[in-house]
Amino acid sequence: MGRIYNFSAGPAVLPEEVLKEAAEEMLDYKGTGMSVMEMSHRSKAFEEIIQEAEKDLRELMNIPDNYKVLFVQGGASQQFAAVPMNLMKNKVADYIVTGQWAKKAYLEACLYGKANIIASSADKTFSYIPDCSDLPVSEDADYVYICENNTIYGTKFKTLPNTKGKPLVADVSSCILSEPVDVTKYGVMFAGAQKNIGPAGVVIVIIREDLITEDTLPGTPTMLKYKIHADNNSLYNTPPAYGIYICGKVFKWVKKMGGLEVMKKRNEEKAKILYDFLDESKLFKGTVAKEDRSLMNVPFITGSDELDAKFIKEAKAAGFENLKGHRTVGGMRASIYNAMPIDGVKALVEFMKKFEDENLSRL
Ligand SMILES: *Cc1c(COP(=O)(O)O)cnc(C)c1O
């Protein structure tokens, strides 16, 4: 059984090299006589793993010294609560709702204070990014929140919103490491690792130091306090050790590939192959505003539910897995994260062309 092309939105494809290395080290990690899964998170070997992972991530993303990098658990969804609990000093926050993940974050914040929706693309089923150049940012807002790449709908902020001086909090789960970013533009960025980095169970939080305070909302669980994790270098309790180890390997792979500039070029090249085909196809079409298209998640439809189902079934049989759109939106979605090889996208487009030729008459 060979490997298939896995277009899953998450957990998603990992670089083959990383998996092979992890396999080689499975029984005996660098002469320790044990797997990383079996070792103490206080051991020297693991300390090196987590420190090196952080160092490599800092280098890749050019993270300034006044930002902390935290490895935590609870999924990106846990951050929907952690953000307001740590940051809502005035109990006011402004949310830009561009999809389900942003909406969930907004609803969670409503549990803790006054959350306002200051922009939304719900009117057109989240198929675009609203103009965020002059938003009605609340005077006493503790932060402005976005989901930078909308995994389900396939849109991406190409310009960050004008937050009028308020800290920007961004869920970057599905775009982290896909291109260079200016970390200084953010107060907090967080990402569930299972999209563009690899293993589920790790969440990376990159947070400006002045936003890490003792002054959290009353009742904030210890495990949700950024300060606890920052003060303990992400080792307050047992961290998701094996996941962090795999993250570290992915960081090294991205570095070896040439870093984020090269990743961006590769991702643009891959996405262009797919989008160019969608734009010329008589059967398939993309579902989002062209200027807001994500490089990572590419939703498309035929316009017929029946043909969509047929396509997904035949694609699966041909070795293209997980092309079904999110259960709430239907259609198809190809997630083409960093680890998806360009050949996978080329092969998918070839398959789509063939399907189009065979099925155009049915439309
Ligand atoms: C997948 C995803 C989430 C949810 O992540 P969990 O780790 O399952 O909580 C949140 N935000 C975005 C943008 C996602 O893609």
Automatic annotation (TrEMBL):
> Which Pfam families does this one have?
Aminotran_5
- Which BP terms does GO give this entry? L-serine biosynthetic process
User: What cofactors does the UniProt entry give for this protein?
Assistant: pyridoxal 5'-phosphate
Q: Where does L-glutamate bind?
A: R42
What is one cellular component GO term in this UniProt entry? cytoplasm
Report the pathway entry. Amino-acid biosynthesis; L-serine biosynthesis; L-serine from 3-phospho-D-glycerate: step 2/3
Q: InterPro entries, alphabetically?
A: Aminotrans_V_dom, Pser_aminoTfrase, PyrdxlP-dep_Trfase, PyrdxlP-dep_Trfase_major, PyrdxlP-dep_Trfase_small
Binding of pyridoxal 5'-phosphate, residues: A76, S77, W101, T151, D171, Q194, N237, T238
Q: Does the keyword Transferase apply?
A: yes
Domain Aminotransferase class V intervals: 4-348
Q: Does the keyword Phosphoprotein apply?
A: no
Q: Which residues carry this modification: N6-(pyridoxal phosphate)lysine?
A: K195
Q: Enumerate the subcellular locations listed in this protein's record, separating them with semicolons.
A: Cytoplasm
Q: What is its EC number?
A: 2.6.1.52
- Example of a GO MF term: O-phospho-L-serine:2-oxoglutarate aminotransferase activity
Keywords attached to this entry: Amino-acid biosynthesis, Aminotransferase, Cytoplasm, Pyridoxal phosphate, Serine biosynthesis, Transferase
Reactions listed under catalytic activity:
O-phospho-L-serine + 2-oxoglutarate = 3-phosphooxypyruvate + L-glutamate; 4-(phosphooxy)-L-threonine + 2-oxoglutarate = (R)-3-hydroxy-2-oxo-4-phosphooxybutanoate + L-glutamate
PANTHER family membership: PHOSPHOSERINE AMINOTRANSFERASE
Q: Which protein, by its recorded name, is this?
A: Phosphoserine aminotransferase
Chain's gene name: serC
